[in-house]
## 1
Amino acid sequence: MGTQRVGLTDVHQGKPASRKRILAPLRYLVIYHPEKWKYDVVAPIVLAATLWAFYVVASPKIAFFGESGLLKFSRDILVMAVPFLVGALATVAMASSMGSLDKRARGAELYLDGKVLTLRQFVCYLLGYLSFVGIFALVMNIGAEIGRPWLSSVLAEHQTLRLSALLLGPAAFFMVMSAFLTTILWALYFLTDIVNREPPDIP
C-alpha cells in the first residue's frame, strides 16, 4: 500500500486557519484565570495613568526624547529584553516532554476556547505576548525618534494638534510600557506562587 506525504498545509487543528497569524500572541489576553484580568486590564491602565499624570505635572519637565529621555532608557531595556523573551519562548515551546510542564498547573484555572491549558501552553502564550508587546514597543520607540523632526515641522503651525501630540504620544508610550511591565510582574507572581500552590485538602 502506498503512503501519502503529509505537509503542513494538510494539518488542521482547532479553529479554521486565520490570516491574522501575526496577532496570535494576543490570544493570551482571552485566556481565563480568576486573577489574570487585573494584570491584563486594571493594573496597566492605573499604572499608565499615574505615570502619565506625573509626567505632565512634573517640574522641571522630564525629557522624553534625547540621550537622557524616557525613550532612550526604555529602548535600552527593550533591546535586551526582547531577544531574551524570544529565546525563552523557543526553549519552552521546543523542550522535550516533561511531566510537570505538560500538566495543568496546580491551583490555577487556565482556559482558552473552553479548553484547559497545560502549563507549557500557558507559558508559551505568556512569553509570546510579552515578546509581541516588547517588539511593538521597540518599533514604536524607534519610529517616534525617527519621525519626530518630520512631525514637528508638520505640526509647527497647528498648535492645538501639536499640544495633543505632546500629550497623547507619551500617554500611548506609558500604556504600552505599563502593559509590558505588569505582565512581567504577573508572570513572576504566577510562576512563583500560583503554580506551586499545594492542592486544597479534600475532606
## 2
Amino acid sequence: MDTLSSPVSTIKVPALHLAHREFYHFKTLSTSYQLPPHLTTKYNPISNKTTTQFPYLKTLHSPQSYTSQSSSLRSSPNIHRNPASGYAAALVDISQCNNSLETVQKDVERLLKLLQSEQAQAVLANPLVGEKNKGQLVKELAKKGKMNRLLVRLLKMLINRNKVTMVSEVLMEFLRIYDELSGTKVVLVSSKKKMEEGELFGIARTVQKLSGAVKVKIMNLIGVVGDKLPSFAV
C-alpha cells in the first residue's frame, strides 16, 4: 500500500472496540457448516433476474451480479436498487474463487469496527474533511490492520471512484450476504446496559431452536430502552 503523506495518515488506529454494539457468534453444538469453494448458479442483487457470468470479478471493476447455489436464499427488494450490494457481492464471489471467504469476512468485521470508532467517525462524518483525506484514513486503517488484499483492492477502487462514504455500507452488505450463505440468523438485542454473555447465549439457543439456524449472531444494541425489559428482533 502506498505511503500516505496527508496529516490524516498519522491518526492513531483505534483499538478493536465497538462502543454501542457488541457481536457474539453462537454455533450449533453438533453441526458445522462449510461454504462451497465457488457458487455457480447466478442471481442478481440489483435486479431479480438471473444473469450470465460477469467478467469483472477478478479485478472488482463494478457491481453487477452475485452468484448463489442455494435456493433457500431470498433477496429483499431494497438491495436490488442498492449499488453497495453489487460491490459486496463481487467481493464475496472473488473471495470464494480464492478460497479466502472466511478470512475476508473476519477482516471486514475488524475494519467495520475501526470505521465505526469515535476517532474514525470524527474524520469520516466531518463535512469539512475532504474525500481525499477520508480515503487516506480508510487506506491507513486497512494497512495497519493488515487486511486481506482482496478487501484492500475493493477499498482502493471505491476510494478512486470517490465513494468513500459507501465503504461502511458495502462492508455491512458483505456481512449480510455472508450470513445468508453460512446459514447464520442475525438477532438484534436492545438493552439499557451491556448484557451478560450467558443471557445472550440463552437468547441465541432459543432462536436457534425455533429457527433451525446453523449459526446465530447476536448484536447487542446498547442504549436507553426506558423501563422495559431487553427486547430483541430477528
